Amino acid sequence: MHPFSKDYGYFYLIQLQPESRPDEFKIGYSKNYERKMYECWIFCPQAILVSVWPCKQEWESDAVIHATNDILQVSNRVYRGDINLIIEKLHNFFEDTFLNSDTIMINEENLDVFNDYNNYMVSLLREVKLLNDRHSVEYLFRLE
């Protein structure tokens, strides 16, 4: 749940086949990134949720254009390119978009918004790692 507003969901970056196709990834918006990953794991059990960002649904198309304007689109919402560059582009896009959003008013009373955003991102990325770790263990047990 977002601490900022109920209007936010998540923009996700999923590496579909990290071992065989490390440069292929899926991006998009979802209200529930965990459910999105469980849906993805049905077809790509090796998939990894690389990162998520707080996002309003209306930001999705701008984020996709910003991140993918110079890379190959493989299929619907699936792209091929330098994943580290995409992460950097998306991080910068969402940090700027979030901090310039009309829902966030930076004034003398809430100068900590930037710190709140960064702290939230740190906790969100911890949750992402735990979700991936939990799935990895479950996947390995299924293989045995």
List keywords for this structure.
single chain; 144 residues; alpha+beta; five-stranded antiparallel sheet; globular
Describe the structure.
The protein has 144 residues and is of the alpha+beta class. The chain has one domain. It contains four helices and five strands, in the order ββαβαββαα. The protein has helices spanning 33-43, 60-68, 83-99, 113-143; strands at 8-17, 21-30, 48-56, 72-75, 78-80.
Helix content: 40-55%
Alpha-carbon Rg, integer: 16 Å
**Average pLDDT:** 81
Q: Report the uncertain regions.
A: 104-110
| Strand residues, percent | 25-35%
Structural class category: alpha+beta
Instruction: Please provide the count of β strands.
Output: 5
Topology:
Layout: E1 8-17, E2 21-30, H1 33-43, E3 48-56, H2 60-68, E4 72-75, E5 78-80, H3 83-99, H4 113-143
Antiparallel strand pairs: 1-2, 1-3, 2-5, 4-5
Concise description?
The chain has helices at residues 33-43, 60-68, 83-99, 113-143; strands at 8-17, 21-30, 48-56, 72-75, 78-80.
